[in-house]
Structure formats: structure tokens, C-alpha cells
Amino acid sequence: MLPSENGSPGTAFFGPSAGTRPYSAAITIRYYKNGSEFLSPEAFADARRGLAVYSLPLQPLASACQDPRSSATRSLEFTLIREESPLHGDGPKEEVQEHGCLFPGKDGFFALLHTAPKSSAQETAPVFQSLVASFRTQGSKT
Q1: How far apart are CA 129 and CA 36, in angstroms?
Q2: b/e string for 124-140 if b means 16 or more Cβ within 10 A?
Q3: Which of 10, 36, 42, 80 could form a cystine bridge with 55, CB 3.0-4.6 A?
Q4: Angle, vertex CA 82, rays to CA 78 and CA 88, nearest 5
Q5: CA–CA separation, 20 and 45 (whole Å)
Q6: CA separation for the pair 58, 50 (Å, rounded)
Q7: What is the residue extent of each domain of the chain?
Q8: CA 142 to chain centre
Q9: Does domain 2-134 have CATH number 3.40.50.150?
Q10: Are 55 and 71 a contacting pair, CB within 8 Å?
């Protein structure tokens, strides 16, 4: 579990454990209640995109982020690139890619995020895509 972010619980997974950049990718899941700092999934995506040096347009129901519960349930997807200090060692800032899928919940929304160095993001993207494809909430259709 991650420390609460303004009352929003979450968890994160880091990997891969081997290679030249161990634990440089992260998959994060957070739940934001109605009335939290983000009033909507769109507000969350806009805030994340505000950190970016480059961002693709916000996409409703994009193919990589289909809501697994129902085609009628709305979800949002975004991809952005931002610059961060390297996780391992010192050096110039590097480009980090963040791919987010946002799903409505009972009284708020879920944010599923995949963050990795841009140069290696495709290596861990299948793990994130599997998580998104299997993501369910209480009361979800199976």
C-alpha cells in the first residue's frame, strides 16, 4: 500500500527486478473519492498532463484502455512524457512516459498508471495492459 494521498488509498508495483535499470517502471493504482482534490477523472488527467513536456490528447474509450466491465461505462486514457531526474545515479533529466487509464467507481474513480523511462516503457507495457484488461471493482460485471 502507498501512503494516503489526501485521503486516496493506493498501491504500486515496481519492476523489472533485473536488467540495466532495475525497478525503474511502476504501475500504480489509486482510488479518488468524490470531493477529493480531483473533482473528476478529467480533472485528474488535466493535472497530470500539466506536468508534461508533451502530451497526447485525452482519449475517451481508447483501445488500450477499454473499460473491461461495460462498453457503456465511461473510461478515459492519457499518455504523456515528462522529464525527471534519473532513478539510478546522477545525471541529466530523462524522459519518462506515463500512460493512465481512469475508471469510474461507486463514489469516485480509479486511476491506473504505468510510468517508465520512455526508452524502455514498451518493455513493461504488456504487464500494465494485462492489469487493465483484468481490472474489476466491487459490483463489476465479469
Answers
A1: 27
A2: bbeebeeebeebeeeee
A3: 80
A4: 120
A5: 31
A6: 12
A7: 2-134
A8: 22
A9: no
A10: no
Single out the residue of 43, 70, 38, 36 nearest to residue 58, CA to CA. Answer: 43
Supply 109's cell numbers.
474513480
Residue 79: name the closest of 68, 65, 92 by CA: 65
Triad 116, 38, 51: Cα angle to 5°: 40
Amino acid letter at 58? L
Bridge partners of 57, per DSSP, are none
Query: Cell numbers 497526447 correspond to what residue?
Result: 56
Of the candidates 103, 41, 42, the residue with the CA atom closest to the CA atom of residue 68:
103
pLDDT tens for the chain, 142 residues long, are 555 556 677 888 888 877 767 778 899 999 998 888 888 888 888 888 777 666 665 555 444 455 455 444 567 888 888 888 766 667 788 888 999 998 888 889 999 999 998 888 888 899 998 888 888 776 555 4
Parallel/antiparallel/unpaired status of strands 8-15 and 25-33:
antiparallel
Q: Which of 93, 56, 94 is nearest to 76 (CA)?
A: 56
List the beta bridge partners of residue 40. none
